[in-house]
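Crash report, auto-generated. Payload:
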Amino acid sequence: MHNQTRRASVRTLAAMLLAFAVTLSAAPAALAAEGGSYPNANINVHDQAALQRGARLYMNYCVGCHSLKYVRYSQLAGGIGLTEKQVMDNLNFTGAKFGEPIVTAMPEADAEKWFGKVPPDLSLEVSAKGADWVSAYLKSFYLDPATNSGWNNTVFPNVAMPFPLWQLQGEQEAVMNPPENGQPATVRELKLAHPGSLTPAQYDEAVRDLTTFLAYVSAPDELVRSHIGAWVVLYLVLFTLFALVLKKEYWKDVH
Amino acid sequence: MNAFTQWFADRAPGLDVAYKKHMTEYYAPKNFNVMYYFGSLALLVLVNQIVTGIFLTMFYTPTAAGAFDSVQYIMRDVQWGWLVRYMHVTGASMFFIVIYLHMFRGLMYGSYKKPRELVWLLGMLIFLALMAEAFMGYVLPWGNMSFWGAKVIITLFSAVPVIGEQLVHWIMGTLSVPGDPTLNRFFALHVVALPLVLLLLVVLHLGALHEVGSNNPDGVDVKHGPKGNRWNPNAPVDGIPFHPYYTLKDLVGVGVFLVVCAIIIFFEPTVGGFFIEHDNSIPANDLVTPATIKPVWYFSPFYAILRMIPSKGFGVLAMLASIVVLFLVPWLDRGKVKSVRYRGLAYKIALTLFTIVFLLLCAIGADLTQGWIMGLFGASSATAVSAELVFGRTLVVLYFAFFIFLWAYTFFGWEKTKPVPERVTTHA
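Recovered output after restart:
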């Protein structure tokens, strides 16, 4: 009799946990609903070679305008597995000290004059928008004479930023859908009109490296967390087993 | 008793009495099941929040200009700062999971019924204080969702007749959008005032419980049943000393709970944007509104009720009512049988339905259902919005219907209960 009721309450709890899990598993759906869904960026922040290539791309093409103000060069070195000398020689172009944060040399007032707004800091870009968004955004620039910069983006329409990686990807042009009942024409697809220095496959790799780097920068703790997490969980499982044995020993005389 | 404890016992005789009353001579029913872990787990989370909160306070800057940066400072520059913050943030969400299960346990086994009405009321006050505490804590990182969430929730007070607008200014401390005064007062309330209130209420909650004794999955009152166990001839025959029996059993529950928490903290601390929202990685900005402003998941059932009702005044009223009605449960339910095991079939169905309604309201408030409707039925986004309204309003009606049913079912004597056994039937 008592086994039956006990099983019933375990079943109730299992059902509730399941319902909770279902609610949580809908998280990607919620994100997708917010801004459309994007192809998987397919990144791995534990891939140090990708992080180093991504860091080089960032320092060559992005840091001129976009700071990483929450990241210090010294933390970067530890995170992506480079020495102080390697970082200072190859990744630091502003003359900042090793312990200083990664800021841009561009004065804010000029930036505002040139682009209409100050280019945002990208320390938390992947946390805010998601890696898939960043990756899709970097692949979705196309020539558009109607904008100030001459560039537009299907993921971020009318973005202020001109496409900084055009020499790598080349220039994409938009193939438009015919305008429908008074609505402005929409972009059907992007096609590569003038190839850049990289093949499309190489460019995809470069975007993956850059996105990997930005994902690491958003949450540098992830590299530490996953290393010690398994040990913490293992310790707690052992603790629970010992607690269970102790409990059973004490409860022997409860009938 | 050794010399050291004797020295204390001579000078503070009340200590030993209190220890016995609440630990070694507090006789709890021996048939607690898995639903009875969540009280002690809530206490554990409270301690975690206080300890991690103290460390966060050492590095956090409570100003609109410095708050966001100081959180990143904690995450990146402070030794183990990321761990302490993730423990605090995960703790906040786990607090609500544990409390919701604890309250559900009360509904399952009638733990709010005579003589435990006061225990339930104090518990509900803890829930209210916890909601205020969590809301203010959520504002402190000063991300864009913190900022707009604060704006939206404080503005709800404008629904109060006559003094509404002044009340909003008084709470916010600024004229239009939250600013330094808002952040400063929320910080003070979050780290000093509300934790004190919570601790006091927890002491009263436990004190009231230990006065009348714990309920159990059979709803049998062991205190008024047969007497005499191995420890004491006057203690309930089905009672066992809280310490060491339930302290050790709860330790097992703590172990399992910590494994779950550690998996979240170390492997998926944002829980897909539910425990830490993506928009909060953007600093507060009064010029840029997030695409959808919604509170954290643990407020979403109540937020859904607000959202599903078109008029602001009635929406706020309904949201308030959905919480107030929980206070009244001990008086709405006139049934004498406590445990769901021996209650009428209709109660079992109603409670199951109520649980499902609560979870679905949670999904609506978390902005999930429109996506579900579009995914399941291939509906367009406009259809999904109106379908969600119909669905959501049905759920709101069903939420309140549970309480009306509970009263009518027991008041008019429609419930056919099963006989309640003389003594508890199960043991662990």
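Post-recovery validation: Chain B touches chain A through 67 residues (CB under 8 Å).
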